[in-house]
UniProtKB/TrEMBL annotation:
<feature type="domain" description="Transcription regulator PadR N-terminal">
    <location>
        <begin position="6"/>
        <end position="82"/>
    </location>
</feature>
<dbReference type="Pfam" id="PF03551">
    <property type="entry name" value="PadR"/>
</dbReference>
<dbReference type="InterPro" id="IPR036388">
    <property type="entry name" value="WH-like_DNA-bd_sf"/>
</dbReference>
<dbReference type="InterPro" id="IPR005149">
    <property type="entry name" value="Tscrpt_reg_PadR_N"/>
</dbReference>
<protein>
    <submittedName>
        <fullName>PadR family transcriptional regulator</fullName>
    </submittedName>
</protein>
<dbReference type="InterPro" id="IPR052509">
    <property type="entry name" value="Metal_resp_DNA-bind_regulator"/>
</dbReference>
<dbReference type="InterPro" id="IPR036390">
    <property type="entry name" value="WH_DNA-bd_sf"/>
</dbReference>
């Protein structure tokens, strides 16, 4: 998935440098789409270049005279982007929270510690909703459909359902009806 994100960003922002692309991924909260680290990002960037899907261009920064390595997508990269769009655009996965694995053995775990785990899930989910609300508060620009906005609206809806589920689970456990 990381190659798709990098190629897509380079189509949107030709001539961007690696740090700029990584910053965009972080700013746009792509971590909710795919797990990535700085290392995995740069590894994928290097792999895309080695495969001829992107190429470096060099720019000299006017303010300090330093050379910056920028990237642009190649025609081969555009073909790969199209393939990856079809590959990921046709996948549909089950919702898979890591928490589900822990919940399988909840009856064998200390009740108070389980309550702490559930509260942690509540806190994390509320934080995600707050980030989404922050993004969604930004006015839409007219014109094209803003798919990223719609994706975030959908994600928010899912988080709200999860938040209710976590709170109900916690209440049931506290009441001893779980």
């Amino acid at each position: 998935m990381i190659p798709l994100l990098i190629l897509g960003l380079l189509i949107q922002k030709p001539g961007a440098h690696g740090y700029e692309l990584l910053s965009l991924m972080e700013k746009r909260h792509y971590k909710y789409i795919v797990n990535f680290t700085k290392g995995s990002f740069y590894y994928n960037l290097q792999q895309l270049e080695e495969k001829g899907l992107i190429e470096q261009t060099h720019q000299i920064r006017p303010n300090n005279g330093r050379e910056v390595h920028s990237f642009k997508i190649t025609s081969l990269g555009k073909e790969e982007f199209d393939k990856l769009m079809v590959k990921y655009g046709t996948k549909s996965e089950y919702v898979n929270l890591q928490f589900y694995g822990a919940l399988l053995f909840a009856n064998e775990f200390d009740k108070n510690k389980l309550l702490e785990l559930i509260q942690s899930q509540i806190d994390q989910t509320e934080a995600r909703i707050a980030l989404l609300d922050e993004y969604l508060a930004i006015k839409e620009s007219p014109g094209n459909i803003d798919y990223f906005r719609r994706m975030n609206e959908n994600s928010r809806s899912h988080h709200l359902v999860n938040l209710k589920w976590f709170k109900d689970l916690k209440a049931d456990l506290e009441e001893g009806t779980g």
